[in-house]
Amino acid sequence: MDFETFGEHQWAETGIFDFFKKLPEVLAAKNIGFRTPSQTIEAFEPVGVFSSPHYLSWADEHRDISAWLENDLQKSSFAEITEIEKILHPYQNSKKPEVQAIIYDFRRLQTSDHLYYMSTKYFADGDVHTYFSPFDSPYDGFIHFTNVLEHLKKRIKKIGDF
């Protein structure tokens, strides 16, 4: 469950916060604990292999990645991010504050929401994209994202050799 659930899908008035406040107590009483995904992998042996010939997601009618990578706006933006990643990857452990600031901002540009806001789907899927987007249109989302990417590229060039 992602954090957007709280406040967008489950309002405080539903009692969701009270539920989460009590949840550890209830789980402890039933001898149920918490584990991270890594801890779970270490604690159990696999029982089989899951194979999917296609990418899967929770989004939209098709339940695939078309919510993020269907149109030219999204594909172009993703390609730009991929190219910037190739430049920054070797410097991810740099101790220079200016490099770390760029990497920090770059990581935020990789969140899936940016590409989601550029979706040009219509009907029910389009309604959902429009509801969650802070932009007036997918094209506005693309323009804003592109401007931020260009600014980031200028910052990278200004520093030069990391």
Class based on secondary structure composition and strand pairing: mainly alpha
Number of helices: 9
Uncertain runs with pLDDT below 50, 5 residues or more?
none
Distance between the termini: 38 Å
Quickly count the domains.
2
Strand share of the residues? under 5%
- Total DSSP E strands: 0
| Global mean pLDDT | 89
Envelope shape: globular
Global Rg? 20 Å
For the biggest sheet, the summary is: none
Keywords:
162 residues; mainly alpha; 2 domains; 60% helix; 0% strand
Could you write a compact summary of the structure shown?
This protein is mainly alpha-helical and 162 residues long. It has helices at residues 5-9, 16-29, 37-43, 66-69, 72-88, 97-109, 112-116, 123-132, 138-159. It has 2 domains: 5-43, no CATH class; 67-159, no CATH class.
Task: Give a written overview of the molecule.
By secondary structure, the protein is mainly alpha-helical. It folds into two domains: about 40 residues, no CATH class; about 90 residues, no CATH class. Helices cover about 60% and strands about 0% of the residues. The chain contains nine helices and no strands. The protein is globular, with a radius of gyration of 20 Å. The relative contact order is 0.10. The mean pLDDT is about 90.
